[in-house]
């Protein structure tokens, strides 16, 4: 049986991010930036997913990086190792981010995604995001528009449901999982430090 366990992303995990980002087509922001965000800026937070199969040693399967700024939760990155796609791991990571965002007082969640990234767009649509705008030529290498997508947390009552709002329960591997702690030291802040110009 495969079990997925979530925990907070820490600076020790940063070397793992480069590999998963390369393989999933995300752009790596640089170790120094990740370390700085996770260590120095409480508005940034992240979650990693480890998959445990037969052995006790877990395998890094994906991560999510987000930041909370007042009522807004922004998903900056989400990437799942390809061999674990469509097993609910991305959904678990999103649910953990929603829970932490709501705990910090966020009322909505938004993100940017490459216009051509159909798989990710469908993933976000499954998570009840809607298209709210377009940033022309936002991405580089290659130059491409970004779609801005957002969803509200209204009606969640602090217990966000999964993709499609059905609370999961599909029997996928990742539904058998543990969520990370709430990270009580974190809080919503107004800092806006953009490494993000790089991409999502
Ligand atoms: C987007 C991504 C994080 C999704 O992770 P995942 O663990 O595969 O997602 P889940 O298994 O939780 O998917 C939940 C639902 O989202 C939808 N979905 C997810 N990936 C999809 C895809 N490639 N095509 C269509 N729908 C998709 C489906 O409705 C899916 O439910 P189903 O499998 O029961 O049909 C993953 O595909 C990934 O890492 N992609 C590369 C990196 C990337 O593009 N990140 C986003 C940058 S903005």
Supply the number of structural domains: 1
Biggest sheet overview = 8 strands, mixed
Taking all Cα atoms into account, the compactness measure Rg is 16 Å
Which range best describes the helical content: under 10%, 10-25%, 25-40%, 40-55%, 55-70% or over 70%? 10-25%
Number of strands: 8
Number of helices: 4
Descriptors for this entry?
200 residues, alpha+beta, Aminopeptidase, eight-stranded mixed β-sheet, 22% helix, disordered C terminus, binds coenzyme A
Provide an overview of this structure.
The chain is α+β, with helices and mostly antiparallel strands. The chain has one domain (3-175): 3-Layer(aba) Sandwich (Aminopeptidase), CATH 3.40.630. Helices cover 22% and strands 32% of the residues. It has 4 helices and 8 strands. The chain has helices at 14-24, 31-40, 89-103, 118-126; strands at 3-8, 44-52, 59-69, 72-80, 108-114, 130-139, 144-152, 177-178. Strands 6-7-5-4-3-2-1-8 form an 8-stranded mixed beta sheet, sandwiched between helices. The radius of gyration is 16 Å and the shape is globular. Mean pLDDT is 82; it is low at 164-171 and 175-200.
List the helices and strands and how they pair.
Blueprint: E1 3-8, H1 14-24, H2 31-40, E2 44-52, E3 59-69, E4 72-80, H3 89-103, E5 108-114, H4 118-126, E6 130-139, E7 144-152, E8 177-178
The structure holds coenzyme A (COA).
Coenzyme A binds next to strand 4, helix 3 and helix 4.
TL;DR of this structure?
With 200 residues, this protein is of the alpha+beta class.
């Amino acid at each position: 049986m495969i079990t997925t366990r979530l925990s907070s992303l820490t600076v020790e995990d940063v070397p793992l991010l480069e590999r998963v980002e390369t393989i999933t087509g995300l752009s790596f922001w640089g170790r120094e930036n990740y370390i700085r965000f996770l260590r120095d800026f409480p508005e940034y937070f992240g979650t990693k997913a480890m998959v445990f199969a037969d052995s006790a040693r877990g395998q890094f399967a994906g991560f999510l990086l987000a930041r909370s700024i007042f009522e807004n939760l922004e998903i900056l990155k989400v990437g799942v190792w390809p061999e674990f796609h469509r097993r609910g791991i991305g959904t678990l990571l999103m649910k953990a981010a929603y829970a932490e965002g709501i705990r910090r007082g966020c009322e909505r969640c938004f993100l940017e995604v490459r216009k051509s990234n159909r798989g990710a767009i469908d993933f976000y649509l499954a998570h009840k995001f809607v298209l709210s705008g377009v940033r022309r030529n936002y991405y580089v290498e290659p130059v491409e528009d970004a779609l801005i997508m957002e969803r509200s947390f209204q009606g969640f009552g602090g217990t966000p449901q999964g993709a499609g709002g059905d609370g999961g329960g599909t029997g996928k591997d990742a539904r058998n999982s543990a969520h990370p702690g709430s990270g009580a030291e974190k809080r919503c802040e107004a800092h806006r430090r953009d490494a993000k110009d790089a991409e999502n």
